[in-house]
Amino acid sequence: MDSFRDKLIPVTSIVAGMVVLWYVMAVILNAPFQRDLDTRANETPGTVEFIGKTLAQPKPTLPAPHQVAVNFFENTFLRPITSSRSLVYNAWVTLSSTLLGFAFGTALGIIIAVGIVHVATLDRSLMPWIIASQTIPILAVAPMIIVVLAAIGITGLIPKAMISTYLSFFPVTVGMVKGLRSPEIMHLDLMHTYNASPSQTFWKLRVPASVPFLFTSMKVAVAASLVGAIVGELPTGAVAGIGAKLLAGAYYSQSIDIWSALVAGSIVAALLVMVVGIAGRLVDRAMGGRPA
Amino acid sequence: MTGISPAVVAASKLGLTFQTNDGPVQALSNVDLTIGKGEFVSFIGPSGCGKTTLLRVIADLEKPTSGTISVNGMTPEQAREKRAYGYVFQAAALFPWRTIERNVGLPLEIMGLSRAEQAERIKRTLDLVNLSGFEKKYPWQLSGGMQQRASIARALAFDADLLLMDEPFGALDEIVRDHLNEQLLELWGRTNKTICFVTHSIPEAVYLSTRIVVMSPRPGRVSDIIESTLPKERPLDIRETPEFLAIAARVRDGLRAGHSYDD
Amino acid sequence: MNWLKPSWQAVLAIVLCVVAIALGAMSKPEAAALADPAVSINYPYLGTKGVMLGLAIVAALVSMIRIPSLAEAVVLFVGAHLVAWLLISGIAGFEGTALAPYFLLLTAAWLLGWRCVAVLSGLRPMASSARNALRLIIPAIFGAWILIIWEAVTRGAGIPFILLPPPSAIGVRIANSLPVLGADVRQTIFKAVIFGYVVGSGAGFITAILADRVPFLRRGLLPIGNMVSALPIIGVAPIMVMWFGFDWQSKAAVVIIMTFFPMLVNTVAGLAASGHMERDLMRTYASGYWPTLIKLRLPAAAPFTFNALKINSTLALIGAIVAEFFGTPVVGMGFRISTEVGRMNIDMVWAEIAVAALAGSVFYGVVALVERAVTFWHPSVRGG
Ligand SMILES: Nc1ncnc2c1ncn2[C@@H]1O[C@H](COP(=O)(O)OP(=O)(O)OP(=O)(O)O)[C@@H](O)[C@H]1O
Ligand SMILES: [Mg+2]
């Protein structure tokens, strides 16, 4: 907790500094357009009034923090959550495919990792490709997956979840391979002296040893999964979801909408990573982990 | 193998060569050794002389490249499959995610004992090493000496007649070490187990053993075997007696001979 | 039976071949020809069917004889790939007409390839050059079989072109569209990615040093940086497009934002990585902040910084391509992908993806090479 207080003041002051900077930038960036408007309307507002106006444009270049906050609040709490403009609804659309894809991706990643650890042939042939494929901008295939699947009649949740699956299984595979290989030689020798069967060694030694690795990689995977779901919403022509809100905002230059969708996406991401982190900590505690 | 041998461990012309990237390393050569039931045999020798390797061969963790070895009249592999021995490593090697009692219960789980039987044996062996009351603790909540005792309890839990111990007290301070030595002797006296014990300490070897095997390196081999004339009852202060010191001197001479061979 | 060493792959391959022979026709035209011998129908594998089946069975049988592993691998390699090649080249002109025996034979060939990889994986050559060669050959065979199966299945089963074009078609498309692909690479990689990568990583690096100098800044920035790394930063793309227009500048801005934080977080961690003993040593020399930084702490941080550079190489490509989905001039990899997807020119999309994959690997490889040259002293490099 000590380190928490240590960080609290610096973090809050930097965040405060960023908010101030944001306001300044908003005034500066929105000023030219406001001046345009004023000359056209033949108005000569005073400085304070002018600054007030730059912070209250309907489609500002850079919306002020309070504009984003108000928009976010309205679209989150004041709209019925069934409305397609509700951020809760859109966040849920994205979240559901994120979670589905993340669950599949984690399961797939674990299965592949188990295969790689146990089958030498897979280790030598598949593992190099998995490592190499991390250098590839996989997200580029997202539109194709969506459109091709739509062509054979699969739309909605599944295609997006597939992209999330795809993005989240890489980190889990790599992490789990590391984790399943993490037991010390001495522990493996110990199991050998007990004449333990391979499945006993697997369940009693390799699996528990891999748990910390699993949760570390799941944090990366869930963040990747969310990005996959958001990008997966782009090519569908902006139906629903946070990605769709971003795209719609871009079409209609609704900058405030874009920013509040971005805030919503960030909150979802932070929550997801936090939930995985807490789950990891709980499991670690249950397994006798030393409190840090 | 002919007939039933009374020897617990019988090695003859045993040799082991590791193939490494820098060429072969002869870790053991021409080791002849017989260990009878109920003996307490210490292995002592300079670093790299093959003590650990020899123990690992007995435990079927390493395969010899020449010669023969039998454990309880069987091959080491068969002996391992029959769970004929408990092995104590240099470090405690407890699983950090298991409590002490579940660590001690690990071999019992693997051997498929019933829950009641497991609980009973865990209790008995933890009593034996004076760790009662720490059942629910995790390894990191125990001191190094207690962890090492827990790992000995784990090796004792399934009642194997042979204990293989590789520098089990190497990382502990002198006082704790004395204490554990006493306890180990007491346990050995009570259970009539056969113990093979690797150490770097001459007093420890002399204090504990009925026989001391002195080894020398490059290639690893047995250079001397010293019978101890000390009685089976050994209080700690036996280490000041002339008899004890005489044996210690012989061991030291044996070790020196091995070293000078090097130069 | 000491001269036999059966493997499940070879046995299964033989069984599959036998079943394929029993089932008869490999393709619909062949079935028609068999049904009506009077009319002469042209069908695939007129002369090669026996050769293929025979080859597969012989290779499987030979592989089970106790011969040196290397010889076994060569036999399997030649057998499996010859069968696959005959199978794929034979179906040309008869796409979509394959029957079950075609796929059985393909599976048999694949099993032989699998067995070949398994044998090679079991080899433990002493020479390090041979070991390195194996490290390349084994995954190469695996990758080749993905392409072979992809090609054989898409053509044999006649999978519609717009769903999944065969790799050969993608290859042809790449060869025919080099100017377009080149222009896209120039737009996306040489303008947006490189510029954004250099500026973003550089800014992250400088901020890290600043944060290191000012502990208050470090304590505040590090948690923020860690959190931001988990956020879907790619979402700033539409904002950047609004601010900087459709051309590459907006993509570079996205890349800058995406690469900034990983560099910041990693370099700050790296600057804390130099040992206390070394730092105390520098103090005994009365070395000031900057000499200590340059002589000790930056070199010690290099592995961390390079780690960030590697992460960023992928992030930069992703950022630039995805940002183009939000609007571009009529050139660029992301633009090409999204428009060609719309036109159902899936082979062009695959071509673009292949180029992106190649670019990503080359980018990463270059960074890794520079890392090796700069951090040659680090254990992870020395150890090979
Ligand atoms: N797995 C291995 N591969 C290659 N060489 C090995 C291996 N294990 C041991 N050796 C070599 O065999 C020799 C004997 O090693 P061993 O561990 O048995 O020595 P030791 O007597 O137990 O030494 P210490 O007292 O330091 O524990 C050493 O030279 C060592 O380098
Ligand atoms: Mg040793």
Please give a structural write-up.
By secondary structure, chain A is mostly helical. Chain A is 77% helix and 0% strand. Chain A has 2 domains: 2-62; 87-286, Orthogonal Bundle (MetI-like fold), CATH 1.10.3720.10. Chain A starts with a helix and ends in a 6-residue tail after the last helix. Chain B is α/β, with parallel strands linked by helices and 263 residues long. Chain B folds into 2 domains: 37-64 and 71-84 and 161-263, Rossmann fold (3-Layer(aba) Sandwich); 95-159, no CATH class. Chain B is 38% helix and 24% strand. Chain B has 8 helices and 9 strands. Chain B is globular and about 50 Å long. By secondary structure, chain C is mainly α. Chain C folds into 2 domains: 8-159, no CATH class; 174-382, MetI-like (MetI-like fold, Orthogonal Bundle), CATH 1.10.3720. Chain C has 16 helices and no strands. In chain C, helix 1 packs antiparallel against helix 5. Chain C is flat. Chain C starts with 7 loop residues before the first helix and ends with a helix. Chains in contact: A-B, A-C. The complex binds adenosine-5'-triphosphate and magnesium ion. Residues 18, 20, 25, 27, 45, 47-53, 220 of chain B line the site of adenosine-5'-triphosphate.
Write the layout of secondary structure elements.
The complex is a heterotrimer of chains A (292), B (263) and C (384).
Chain A: H1 2-40, H2 47-54, H3 65-78, H4 87-118, H5 120-125, H6 127-133, H7 142-151, H8 157-180, H9 185-193, H10 198-232, H11 242-251, H12 255-286
Helix pairs in contact in A: 1-2, 3-12, 4-8, 4-10, 4-11, 4-12, 7-8, 8-10, 10-12, 11-12
Chain B: E1 9-20, E2 23-35, E3 40-44, H1 51-58, E4 66-71, H2 76-81, E5 85-88, H3 100-111, H4 115-128, H5 144-156, E6 162-166, H6 174-191, E7 194-198, H7 202-208, E8 211-216, E9 221-227, H8 242-262
Parallel strand pairs in B: 3-7, 3-8, 5-6, 6-7
Antiparallel strand pairs in B: 1-2, 1-4, 8-9
Chain C: H1 8-23, H2 28-35, H3 49-64, H4 69-90, H5 100-122, H6 128-156, H7 167-176, H8 178-213, H9 215-229, H10 237-244, H11 248-271, H12 276-284, H13 289-324, H14 333-342, H15 346-374, H16 379-382
The complex binds adenosine-5'-triphosphate and magnesium ion (MG).
